[in-house]
TrEMBL record:
It comes from Roseibium alexandrii. This is Prolyl-tRNA deacylase ProX. Residues 24-151 form the YbaK/aminoacyl-tRNA synthetase-associated domain. Transmembrane segments: none annotated. Gene3D superfamilies: YbaK/aminoacyl-tRNA synthetase-associated domain. InterPro entries: ProX/PRXD1, YbaK/aa-tRNA-synt-asso_dom_sf, YbaK/aa-tRNA-synth-assoc-dom. The gene is proX_1. It holds the Pfam family tRNA_edit. PANTHER family: PROLYL-TRNA SYNTHETASE ASSOCIATED DOMAIN-CONTAINING PROTEIN 1-RELATED, YBAK DOMAIN-CONTAINING PROTEIN. Coiled coil: none annotated. It comes from the Bacteria. The lineage of its organism: Bacteria, Pseudomonadati, Pseudomonadota, Alphaproteobacteria, Hyphomicrobiales.
Length: 175
């Protein structure tokens, strides 16, 4: 059975990670979450669950308005060939969440197999506070970017922080 919200919150507590959670009506897309951005401070995000030609799985997490070139992102994340979206069954099997509820917090459900490579966009990680669903899309949980890395590592993952979005790539060029 995948972890539930209470188990996730307990895991945060065990790690000494302080989070705040706001309950709200379910949101299934970034477009539906607009008013939440005004009510909840911090960077708001989106998540892409993708697989490459060899079946390797990636969870790409970026700011909600990030532009991702799906034809080229494989070069940035180290995938074999172009990536495609993983289907709902694979998402549930590996990360224990449904479409619309994809979150880096679902790495809690991939602790043993470690089938997913988390990729956090560099522009997103520049924010002090980031917001994600706590395994279901009817709430938003705020966490610091450093605690997000701590969480992912505690789940047995070594997250890649890469310039995935056009915004992060532009910052690299300017920097």
């Amino acid at each position: 059975m995948p972890a539930n919200r209470d188990e996730l919150m307990g895991f945060f507590q065990d790690l000494g990670i302080s989070v705040t959670t706001v309950d709200h009506d379910p949101v299934f897309t970034v477009a539906e979450s607009g008013d939440l951005h005004e009510r909840i401070p911090g960077g708001h995000t989106k998540n892409l669950f993708v697989k490459d030609k060899k079946g390797r799985l990636f969870l790409i997490t970026t700011l909600h308005d990030a532009e991702i070139d799906l034809k080229k992102v494989h070069q940035v994340i180290g995938a074999q060939g172009r990536v495609s979206f993983g289907n709902a069954d694979l998402l549930m099997e590996v990360l224990g969440v449904e479409p619309g509820s994809v979150t880096p917090f679902s790495l809690i459900n991939d602790r043993e197999a470690q089938r997913v490579t988390p990729v956090f966009d560099a522009a997103m990680m520049a924010h002090d506070v980031l917001n994600y669903h706590p395994l279901k899309n009817d709430a938003t949980t705020a966490i610091t970017s450093s605690d997000l890395l701590k969480f992912a590592k505690a789940c047995g993952h070594d997250p890649q922080v890469r310039a995935v979005s056009a915004q992060a790539q532009a910052s690299e060029v300017q920097g």
